[in-house]
Amino acid sequence: MRVLTSLKSPLNELFLFELEDGSRIEAVFYRGDTLCVSTQVGCPVRCGFCASGKEGLIRNLSWKEIYGQYELVKGRRPIKRIAVAGIGEPLANWESVKEAFWRFKGEGLKVSFYTTGFPLSNLRELISFPHAGVSVSVHSLDEKLRRKIMPFAGSLSRLLEFLRGEIPRLTKKKRRKLSLAYLLMEGINDGYEELERLARLASELGLSVHLLFYNDALGFATLSQEGYQRAIAFLKEKGIRITLSNRFRKDKLGGCGTLVANRLI
């Protein structure tokens, strides 16, 4: 495994790795202290808005390949945090991700996750870990629409049943480290009816919402800044705690779903 190249923008640095079998994966250093790592070559979830998972799953990474992204970059950049939010669904490669997690923790790193939540048994184990945050991607609370934009993400009704059963058992401290991730796409899931459903669920579960800004990757329309602000105002009026996409996550070298689009060689 080696660093093939790195690409820099004013905000982020993307590292392209070549694995022993010739496969390539990406990690992104952002915020001045965080490395976002990948867990699979390709992704089985194949969200319709995500260029990184367009071709589906090619193979899982070993724990050494997940940890190796950090190992190859740590001498170059001051890494204090790991975001398991790059290419792949971490829960679908759970044994390798678990081993890498404990290795990261052994280095004194804070580790956070993005996941679509399946398999649910692995999500149950994950939320019990000493993580720095878990964000569960929902993106729509209409079952039919969610299947359209996230065709292999698992059943929305099963996910909601799980969350309603598990979250009340958590301590307040643990609950505050969980959030619902919602990627706004113009004309798809940004209507007030959709946002009302999201507000009701977040309120019921006592969770915050990570409201993501869509980076144009596969032709879905990016919401205007005005539309994004309207969604923020609507949710805040409902009393929902919101985390926003920061400038690093909007950057062309760090945007949700766009990592493979930056391969130049």
In words, what does this structure look like?
There is one protein chain. With 265 residues, the chain is an alpha/beta fold. It has a single domain, classed as Aldolase class I (TIM Barrel, Alpha-Beta Barrel). 32% of the residues lie in helices and 23% in strands. A 10-stranded mixed beta sheet has the order 1-2-3-4-7-8-9-10-11-12. Helix 1 runs parallel beside helix 2. The chain is globular and about 50 Å long. It starts with a strand and ends in a 15-residue tail after the last helix.
Protein topology:
Elements: E1 2-8, E2 13-18, E3 24-30, E4 34-36, E5 40-42, E6 57-60, H1 63-73, E7 81-84, H2 94-106, E8 110-115, H3 120-128, E9 133-137, H4 143-149, H5 156-166, H6 172-175, E10 178-184, H7 192-205, E11 208-213, H8 225-237, E12 242-244, H9 247-250
Parallel strand pairs: 4-7, 7-8, 8-9, 9-10, 10-11, 11-12
Antiparallel strand pairs: 1-2, 2-3, 3-4, 5-6
Helix pairs in contact: 1-2
The name of the CATH topology is: TIM Barrel
How far apart lie the N and C ends? 17 Å
Instruction: Write the H/E string, N to C.
Output: EEEEEEHEHEHEHHHEHEHEH
Task: Indicate the overall shape.
Answer: globular
Oligomer: single chain
Number of domains: 1
Question: Which stretches are low in confidence, meaning pLDDT under 50 for 5 or more residues running?
Answer: none
CATH architecture group name: Alpha-Beta Barrel
**What is the spatial order of strands in the main beta sheet?**
1-2-3-4-7-8-9-10-11-12
Number of strands: 12
What is the share of helical residues? Answer: 25-40%
**What profile does the largest beta sheet have?**
10 strands, mixed
What is the number of helices? 9
Rg, nearest Å: 17 Å
Structural class: alpha/beta
The CATH superfamily turns out to be: Aldolase class I
CATH class: Alpha Beta
Beta-strand percentage?
A: 15-25%
Mean pLDDT, rounded to whole units? Answer: 91
